[in-house]
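We close this part of the discussion by returning to an individual protein. In the encoding step, the backbone of a single protein was reduced to a row of integers, each denoting a local shape. The sequence in question and its structure tokens are set out directly beneath this paragraph.
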Amino acid sequence: MQRTRQDTLILSSFALWPIPKDSTTGPRIDKELLEKYKEGLIISSACLGGRNPSKDNGRQNREKAEESALWYKKVFGDDYYLEIMRHPSGDPKMDAHIYDNQEICNKEILRMGKKLGIKVIATNDVHFLNKEDAEAHDLLICLNTGKDLDDPNRMRYTTQEWFKTQEEMNKMFADCPESIEKHSGDC
């Protein structure tokens, strides 16, 4: 456990300092560092913006996603998980952009998990603690990006990014209980 804490602190330090001034992605950790400081870490694949998910089911993207997943599996073994998410907003335009793509990716991730022998977990992006905090989070995004609330082109979240309860997650993934049941104590 001590080694895990040390490795986590080392990775956090490398990720945060120094961040190049021209960086468009902010803090990050490369694969070489992950291999060196992997002791006790539990790793998951991330959201639509991560290395594995792909809304394009084309063969080339599948191969790249599988290659990436296999690298993480080789390095982290059973401590590597593929993530599925669902953030339905109720807004048809936003759902077409985010939720519908999540559902396409979820199918692909479930297929890939079975094919490659990698466990799949249901997760939820968390950007605020409670459901009621969605409006405050939206305002904060506007402040941080210098955009007006009524700007149709500003960054928006689905308002589903609160810390969901086990019951909420069970309901959201009722059609895929294996993504919750088997792993609720792992992460």
Q: What stands out?
A: Residues 59-76 form the longest helix (18 residues). The chain has a mean pLDDT of 86. Residues 51 and 113 are 15 Å apart (CA to CA). The beta strands are 43-44, 80-84, 119-122.
